[in-house]
Amino acid sequence: MAELRNIDLNLLVVFQHLLQERNISAVARRLDLSQPAVSNALRRLRSALGDELFVRTAQGMQPTPHAERLGGPVGEALALLSHTLDATHDFRPEESRRRFRIAMTDVGEIHFMPRLVKACSRQAPGVRIDSLRLAGTDLRREMDAGHVDLAIGAFDDLGSGFMQRMLFRQGYATLFRRGHPTAHEGMNVKAFRAERHLVVSRAAPHGQVNQSLERAGVKLDEHFSVPHFSAVPYIVSTTDLLATVPRKLADTVAAQFHLGLFAPPIRIPALQTNLYWHRRFHRDSGNQWLRALMVDTFVEEN
Fold it and tell me: For position 78, which CATH number holds?
């Protein structure tokens, strides 16, 4: 095992970015280095650690098993060091140029991102927010390493080490185009079942929608489907399909796409949306500011 004193900390930063990007040119751009400098850093790391670490393939620079094993601990160590150094200074949103990363779904982006952009423009004009799709072990690993600051949604599988706060609960609404020949508020289950539906096939954590449709007698494999909610209003506005979606999404898109909406005549459990963060960053001033912004902006919608 190489002694820590023989490894330049900057080499580990390059290593961590290579794990994420799998491309030397991309890492060079991200770190504002030349490609030869990144290649040289990789050569020095290979020599210090006695392993190839990354092998060039048609899919990019793929990590060796040893590099994969190092990824988690190195990421956590760098994140802890970074946040420790940041903690010596109070976070000043009006001066900060920090980039936060928030895991959320496509329907979450539609609801949260516009208002977050406006809030940051007022309070922290230099702050930027990246949204990304992660769940399960991938989300836990990225939050463990400090690569993801917050997660918004319903994540029951994060396990210990995470803190959470409820933002709001919501029901569901069925969307239809204005002028639809048969859809209307108050339609019964039989009429609802007889309509053509647009199903969101990858609805997690909204899977209870599809389960409720099936219990009501709607055979999902006989209807049209899309993988995500973001395409729903575009399709419903130009067809006679019905789509049952989270209420906040329905309220957001109905007027813009000239859609009507009604409470579906089937029972669907309410969806709870939570804010999650890692316990290690509970006292990080930047993370605290972002959490407070989320709460101030969205929790009143309960």
Answer: 1.10.10.10
Q: How far apart are CA 61 and CA 24, in angstroms?
A: 8
What contacts 223, CB < 8 A, 6 or more positions away? Answer: 196, 197, 198, 199, 241
- Calculate the alpha carbon distances from 302 to 74, 251, 272, 274 in Å: 40, 15, 10, 12
The span from the CA of 80 to the CA of 145, in Å, is 8
Residues in the chain: 302
Task: Decide: helix, strand or coil at residue 267.
Answer: coil
283 within domain boundaries: yes
Domain with 125, as residue range(s), is 99-167+275-301
Q: Are residues 203 and 225 in the same domain?
A: yes
This prediction has a pTM of 0.70
pLDDT in tens, the chain (302 residues): 445 666 778 888 899 889 888 999 989 888 888 999 999 999 999 988 889 999 999 888 899 999 988 888 887 777 777 766 655 567 899 999 999 999 999 889 999 999 999 999 999 999 999 999 988 888 888 888 888 999 999 887 787 889 999 999 999 999 999 999 999 999 999 999 999 999 998 655 557 888 899 999 999 889 999 998 999 999 999 999 999 999 999 999 999 999 999 999 999 999 899 999 998 888 888 999 999 999 999 996 44
Residues 137 and 215 in one domain: no
Q: Are residues 27 and 105 in the same domain?
A: no
Asked whether residue 93 is domain-assigned, the answer is: no
